[in-house]
Amino acid sequence: ALMIFVNCFVLLLITSGTLSDRAKAMSRFFSLLHKDKIVVGDALFSNLTATQIIEETGKNIYLIETTDKLKSPKKIIKLMGRDQHIEWVINQVNDHTTEIGFSDGAQKESNYFFKLHDVIKSKTKQLTKIINATFIKSKEGFKFLSNVAEFLAKYNYIQISPVLTSGMHFLIDSITRVNLFASQTILPTQLIQSSGRFRFAELLQISFSEIRKDYPEDDKSIIMDEVVNNPEDTNFYQEFLYLADCPHAKRVVERIMHNNFMRLNYENNTLILFELLGGEIQREEQGETTENYISKSSPQDLILLKTLTQAEYQNLQYQWDDSSAASFRL
To answer: Pairing with 108, which of 3, 64, 179, 279 sits 20 to 30 Å away (CA)?
Structure first.
């Protein structure tokens, strides 16, 4: 029997729930691999993925490369500071171009994703649109997916969450520039995926949030971190008992460890990946911006800045109240 899986490991990685839930999902997935022939299409297929499949099934793996000519041009990656980047986008939007911005900023608690949009909209007064998971599930989201080029032409600034990280590509020759506001909440490989959604974009403007987070690097620390910090875990003792004797929990922990290692030196790893894919890195000199758009704005300032109607915020599952101010983060 022939079985085909697409983006299978990506789905396993983003599955929410407890560590034991993800171990059970991993177990069910591997149980499907014991077929005569299997085709796996996964943009994030790695050496670890291959090793785990071989260990589980004992099968040989053959890599199939496309022979089609690449439709993406060589990319120039222009690196700059966050406030400088925001100012550039504001000026570009005011020139009445259609600007695309990818942001993986938080959509809960700090709502950095929405605040970034509000800062840009408040300084441009142009038509903007937020595209996140909630939007994609709506009737308007269906219209967007049905005719992306026509939809985008209506707006001057479109801000997209990681909902469009992979699985879609847009051949729109009028979109030659894309902005990446990286907040380090997704993997460098996923950020690279986001940058390629618009195939004709040859200029990538990128800035990184200044976040320094320590990720657990050994299996015991990872298990402790996952169990203790997961709000869905209500019975720590039972969870630890299950994980101690579950081989598929070990596979999940291996993937978390692999991803945590990838997150170390996040900016450097991302830029190295761009270079390996043929991109040219250009560092924009840190100039004086006319304003501190995000980096030195207080949470209270950003709470007061709202550019959509209450109904629009609710439709996008915007969650913000004054109690969130103390926990503002990127």
So the answer is: 179
